[in-house]
TrEMBL record:
<protein>
    <submittedName>
        <fullName>Transposase</fullName>
    </submittedName>
</protein>
<dbReference type="GO" id="GO:0003677">
    <property type="term" value="F:DNA binding"/>
</dbReference>
<dbReference type="GO" id="GO:0006310">
    <property type="term" value="P:DNA recombination"/>
</dbReference>
<dbReference type="InterPro" id="IPR025269">
    <property type="entry name" value="SAM-like_dom"/>
</dbReference>
<dbReference type="Pfam" id="PF13102">
    <property type="entry name" value="Phage_int_SAM_5"/>
</dbReference>
<keyword id="KW-0238">DNA-binding</keyword>
<feature type="domain" description="Phage integrase SAM-like">
    <location>
        <begin position="2"/>
        <end position="56"/>
    </location>
</feature>
<dbReference type="GO" id="GO:0015074">
    <property type="term" value="P:DNA integration"/>
</dbReference>
<dbReference type="InterPro" id="IPR010998">
    <property type="entry name" value="Integrase_recombinase_N"/>
</dbReference>
<keyword id="KW-0233">DNA recombination</keyword>
<dbReference type="InterPro" id="IPR011010">
    <property type="entry name" value="DNA_brk_join_enz"/>
</dbReference>
<dbReference type="InterPro" id="IPR013762">
    <property type="entry name" value="Integrase-like_cat_sf"/>
</dbReference>
Amino acid sequence: SDIPLSQLDKAFIEGFEYYLTIDRKLKRSSISSALSTLQTIVRIAVKKGVLDFYPFLGYSYERPKGEPRSITKEELEHIIDLEIEWENYRIVRDLFVFSCFTGLAISDVRNLREENIVTEEGKLCIKGRRMKTKTPYRVQVLPPAWAIMERYRGKRAGFVFDVPTTDIILNGMHYIQRNIGMETPLTF
């Protein structure tokens, strides 16, 4: 049942986690997601002055580490060779392949600017900071990645790529996965 925000305390959070674990029998990832959502709402309430204390202070919960997934060389070749009629899905495929050859996350690809493309020690590189962690990176640009960059450069002022919306990316990845016969979800 509902409770006023002012009554939300550490005991409630502990009870909520217990309820999700024992009564609802949720997996650790679902519990972590629910607690993270609650924590975000509480943080906003504190910031806006609705709550004058932060009940998550000193409270920690297990955040499971996801298993990194990877694709095989054969799957990557199928993706590269896949005939795609719709231009937006071709762009999604090309950005995914670019990401495979550079190791960049989609957020870093989306924010890749012309000034990030540099030549160091006679090699073409991409230099920047990860959007998520602000960690600096330097990646050598391999020929397949260079070909993709050249195909799309100049379509969005100052940026290397004009990245489609998140919905188009998700739908495009699902389309690619289905059309090459992959069982595991394809994400980047």
